[in-house]
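Researcher: If only I could read backbone structure tokens as easily as an amino acid sequence. Walk me, if you will, through where the backbone shape changes along the chain. I have put the entry right below:
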Amino acid sequence: MKKKNLNKYSYYYFIWHGVFLALTMSMIDFNTVFPALVDTLTKQKVVFGVLYSILLGAPYLFNIIFSHYLKHQKFKKKYLLLGIYLRALSFLGMALTVYYFGEKSPNTVIASLFILIFIFSISGGFAGISYADMMGKIFTSKERGKLYATKQFLSSLAAFGGGLLVSKIFSPGKLPYPFNYVVVLFIGFIGLSIASLGFLFIDEAPSEIHEDKKEKFIDYIKSIPSILRADRKFLKFIIIENLASFSLMILPFYMMFAKDIFSIDNSYIGKYLLFQITGTIFSNILWGTISTKFGSKAVVRTCVLGGAAIPLIAIVLSKFGPDVFSVVFLLVGFIISGRRVGFETYLLDIAPQNNTTVYFGIRGSLNIMAAVLPIMGGLFIDVVGYYFTFSIVSLIMIFSFVFFKEK
């Protein structure tokens, strides 16, 4: 009975964190707000590509180190909180930098973003492994499915509220640059600080640690090939997630594409963000149905197929003006929501319960493509343009869909 009550309250704490995290992340949404900020500071797409590579790739590159360290720690909560607080301070640092240098020295802001985004990124990876380990210990597979669905729905509503706030801040005649970005970044700092409060009350059970079998880091690295050979499902998951990164890498470039093609003003940042969040809200019905009837693997495959379609849809809708182009962000919301529900849940399903930390660490560090593809995307767009880059991504995603279908 005690275990049941513990899970009940932990369920609400995870929901609390998810809601405030969603509200916070809408303040620096990486597909609308953040690309618009960088585009204001520099027109070189490759600069944004490098920043986005750090954002996506840094936690993956460091996760193998983090997971090796964390697998020998009985309690993960303090590391989860450390990661959240570092991310919050990164928000504060970005807000202060934009405030003091946004108008006078854009290059200074860009230089600081490389440092602050790196801290934001690796602390997120550190927190993510701890988060997954705690979730794996506290909840059963069935409970996790319910938690993810509920958290995703409520988080989407919170994100929509954040989107309305962003839309208000970027409305014409409201806050001028750079104060508009300063305000949203400072709200992000406050929101993450509040989000962490729920975890303070979780009574975490200790992980089972075999001290007599504690291995050196080099031995841990050498064990990865044998783990992948022994678990073919895990190996295929790694391959698919790397291929799916091609779709992920171009998500933030849709905002830059719209700004370049339509010469839109900042009011569209909030509008496109609201369409994206609306997509995440309504897609919960779709992903919940698919996950319940066909499992998390079907969610992943549907996301991959959607990732193949959106670039082509973006090309077509670019002929119809900025308002019609909002549909692209609606569909992006579907894919973002599906990835959250599908990929992590599928990995939790196939990972041994006593090896969750290791699997998430290996998964992160072997997702190499996420670290390099945004740079390639920025270079490709600078050299050959959006249309060619979008078309290539669609072809790769179609191949990924067929590959994942194979047994």
User: Anything to note?
Assistant: Residues 2-201+227-405 form a domain with the Growth Hormone; Chain: A; fold (CATH 1.20.1250.20). Residues 1-6 have pLDDT under 50 and may be disordered.
